[in-house]
Amino acid sequence: MKRVMLATACIFLVSPVFAQEVDLGLAGDASSLLNLPAPRGNMPARGTASARGDQTSRAAAPVVDRLVRLRELLAGANLPLAKEQEVALNSFLNAEIPAMRRTLQEHIAELEKTAGSRGGPRNLPSMDELAPEIIRLNDQLLGKMATVPSLNAEQQAFVKKLYQDQVKTRGGFEAIKLTLENAGVPFSTEQIAQIQLLFEEQNQAKMDQLQRDTLSKVIKLLTPTQRSALVAK
Predict the structure, then answer these.
(1) pLDDT at 163 over 50
(2) Which DSSP state fits 232?
(3) What is the pLDDT of residues 94-152, one digit of tens each?
């Protein structure tokens, strides 16, 4: 029992300095997240030809290379990506990102609904509120990339380890879930719903407290007249 408790504690206390962070380019403001560009924008991946008549789209979309960090880490492990592997990975990302965009939109709608039920404004959530979901989607995508058939067995094992190390370093629900899956005793469907809700409530509580702390600091900087005007509003 003590070993289990110690292992769980390590999940939450391990320092991010030991993680090989792999950001697949999902960061950005809320509006850009709702319209995530394809890998490298509309520019062709290495080893592919650009489509004719696509000059307008190519000029409008920012160039995004989602393989930068992964490419560096694989090269550093002497497991470099071949051009055809990059093409396959980018095709995989092109197929996965629309579903991720929908998931994020649903998450935003749920946050707006929750804010409305509490009497707050139904504004677009802040990046601080979206960050946990963005991180989860990024990690989830990295885990799926470890199964792309174009990668050889060594590359798949390497990417899988990156994914697992990254999730465990972040801690929280996903880290516990992964640890139990690796131990062969995964959460049940009912447990996932219940435990995930607990962590979501924890994150919301932290956000609410942060907002209260910020408002308190702002009020201290106001003049008496400004405070009266704020209260009157």
Answers:
(1) yes
(2) H
(3) 898 888 888 888 888 887 787 666 665 566 677 777 878 888 888 889 999 999 999 99
Give the DSSP H/E element, type plus range, for residue 85: helix 83-117
Q: What's the predicted TM-score (pTM) here?
A: 0.63
Chain centroid to Cα 190, Å, comes to 24
DSSP, residue by residue, 87-114: HHHHHHHHHHHHHHHHHHHHHHHHHHHH
- List, for residues 40-77, the tens digit of each pLDDT value: 433 444 444 444 444 444 455 556 788 888 999 999 99
Nearest C-alpha neighbor of 23 from the set 89, 68, 56:
68
14: amino acid identity, one letter: V
- Find the radius of gyration of the CA atoms of the chain: 21
Q: If you average pLDDT over residues 8-19, what whole number do you get? A: 36
Closest CA to 85 of 45, 36, 134: 45
Measured CA to CA, the distance from residue 217 to residue 204 in angstroms comes to: 20
Residues counted in the chain: 233
The CA distances from residue 149 to 83, 89, 161, 170, in Å, are 15, 9, 17, 27
DSSP string over 10-41: HHHH--GGG------S--S-HHHHTTPPPTTT
What are the domain boundaries of the chain?
Answer: 15-186, 188-233
